[in-house]
Amino acid sequence: MVKVVWALVLLLIVLHQDLWFWEDQRLVFGFLPIGLAWHMGISMGASLTWLLATWFCWPKGDAHSTAPGDAA
Questions:
Q1: 3-state DSSP call for residue 69?
Q2: I want to staple 1 with a disulfide (CB 3.0 to 4.6 A). Which of 10, 19, 54, 56 is the partner?
Q3: Rounded to an integer, what distance in angstroms lies between the CA atom of residue 71 and that of residue 64?
Q4: Hey, where are the domains in the chain?
C-alpha cells in the first residue's frame, strides 16, 4: 500500500501543473471558474491521499510514545 500512496502523491504532483486551464474562461455550475474547480478536486484528492497514508503507512508502534513533557 505504501507504493500506492507514493503513486498517488506523484499523480497529484503531475495533475497540479494545470497549464491547460490557465486561459480557459468556462464556468462549472454556472459560477465557478474551471481552474478553481480543478484545484478543489486536487485538494480533495490530496486529503484522500493523506487519509490513506495515515491509515496504511503510519508506523504501528507509535501510539504509545511519550508526549512532550511526560516523565519517561
A1: coil
A2: 56
A3: 13
A4: 18-57
The x, y and z cell numbers of residue 57, run together, are: 503507512
Grid cell digits, residue 60? 504501528
> What pTM value is reported for the model?
0.71
Contact 43, 50 (CB under 8 A): no
Burial tier of 67 (Cβ tally within 10 Å: 0-12, 13-18, 19+): exposed
Which is more confidently placed, 70 or 55? 55
Helix (H) or strand (E) holding 3: helix 2-16
